[in-house]
Amino acid sequence: MRRLMITTCLLLVAGCESKPSNDEYAANFVPPTLLKRAEYETALEARWTRLDRNLDRNLDGGIEQSEVPVKYAKRLNALDTDHDGKISHREFISGSLARFDREDANHDGLLTNVESSAARKAEDAANAAQTPTPVK
Fold first, then answer.
1. CA–CA dist 77, 98 (Å, integer)
2. DSSP of 71-91, one letter per residue?
3. Which residues pair with 63 in a beta bridge?
4. Could you tell me the mean pLDDT of each successive run of 10 residues in the chain, 136 residues long?
5. Sheet strands (E) in 40-135
6. How far is it, in rounded angstroms, from Cα 18 to Cα 74?
7. What is the pLDDT, as a whole number, of residue 126?
8. Cβ contacts of residue 56 below 8 Å, gap of 6+?
9. Chain centroid to CA 53: how far?
10. Where would you tag: which of 3, 6, 9, 136 has the fewest CB atoms within 10 A of its CB?
11. In this structure, are strands 86-87 and 63-64 parallel, antiparallel, or unpaired?
């Protein structure tokens, strides 16, 4: 009987998985976010004002490609739809709203962090596929 109990206990312990604690779940928890298109547009106006004030060295009402930090160059320069070397207010707002619309997978006018994350992962994967690998 004692041997049976010990064997049973050993089997139970061996079958136990190490599951993450509640603290680990809490540490990795990302609360859901929900952003309305109108709220996003308001935030874009504030962002434009900040960018224009901080980056527009010659105060001409547009942001030149040379004024854009390298970290954001690819994304911001893609907004220059008329290819004049400057990002105008109209280009910034319309291009950013188009991005919102692309990320809004179910087209309900609300962008969740899940939709945004999925769109950015797809964009990163597409960019990685376009980047040629160096030949050794």
1. 15
2. HHHHHHHTT-TT-SSEE-HHH
3. 87
4. 59 55 70 88 89 69 79 84 89 94 94 91 84 62
5. 63-64, 86-87, 110-112
6. 43
7. 84
8. 62, 63, 64, 67
9. 24
10. 136
11. antiparallel
The residues that bridge with 36 in the sheet, in sequence order, are 110
Q: What is the largest CA-CA distance in the chain?
A: 89
Is-contact 113 123, C-beta < 8 A? no
Cα 64 from Cα 51, distance rounded (Å): 11
What pLDDT is recorded for position 129?
83
Spatial separation of the C-alpha atoms in residues 79 and 61, rounded to whole Å:
15
Which pLDDT belongs to residue 52? 77
Helices of type H across the chain: 2-15, 22-27, 37-55, 70-77, 89-103, 113-130
Tokens found for residue 93: 């707002």
pTM value > 0.70: no
**CA nearest 92: which of 133, 55, 129?**
55
Assign 132 to helix, strand or coil.
Answer: coil
